[in-house]
């Protein structure tokens, strides 16, 4: 992948943060514990996929684009 695509991919992946944060807020309001845990697991899977499929490969290809803590 070229740098311009990597930069766009990273930006798009990071743009999901506010939306995924809102999903987390909504999930926290689910009263049924089993349902809430299932939703939390699903959200965790989405976060893992965004990180492993998009952000990590971009960071490996372009170290200066790596996510910093």
Question: How would you characterize this protein structure?
Answer:
This protein is mostly helical. The chain has one domain (3-60). The protein is 80% helix and 0% strand. The protein contains 2 helices and no strands. The protein has helices at 3-28, 33-61. α1 (3-28) runs antiparallel to α2 (33-61). It is elongated, with a radius of gyration of 15 Å. The mean pLDDT is 96.
Order of helices and strands: HH
Helix content: over 70%
Mean pLDDT: 96
Determine the N-to-C terminus distance.
24 Å
Could you tell me the number of beta strands?
Answer: 0
As a whole number of angstroms, the C-alpha radius of gyration is 15 Å
What is the count of helical runs?
Answer: 2
Shape: elongated
State the secondary-structure class.
Answer: mainly alpha
- Integer tally of domains: 1
**Poorly predicted tracts of residues:** none
Q: Let me know the largest β-sheet.
A: none
Share in β-strands: under 5%
What is shown here, in short?
The chain is an all-alpha fold and 69 residues long. The protein has one domain (3-60). The chain is 80% helix and 0% strand.
Give a topology summary:
Elements: H1 3-28, H2 33-61
Helix pairs in contact: 1-2
Provide key terms for this protein.
69 residues, mainly alpha, elongated
């Amino acid at each position: 992948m070229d740098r311009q695509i990597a930069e766009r991919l990273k930006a798009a992946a990071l743009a999901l943060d506010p939306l995924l944060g809102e999903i987390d807020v909504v999930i926290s309001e689910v009263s049924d514990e089993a349902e809430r845990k299932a939703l939390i697991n699903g959200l965790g899977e989405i976060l893992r996929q965004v990180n492993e499929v998009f952000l990590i490969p971009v960071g490996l290809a372009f170290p200066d684009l790596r996510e910093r803590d």
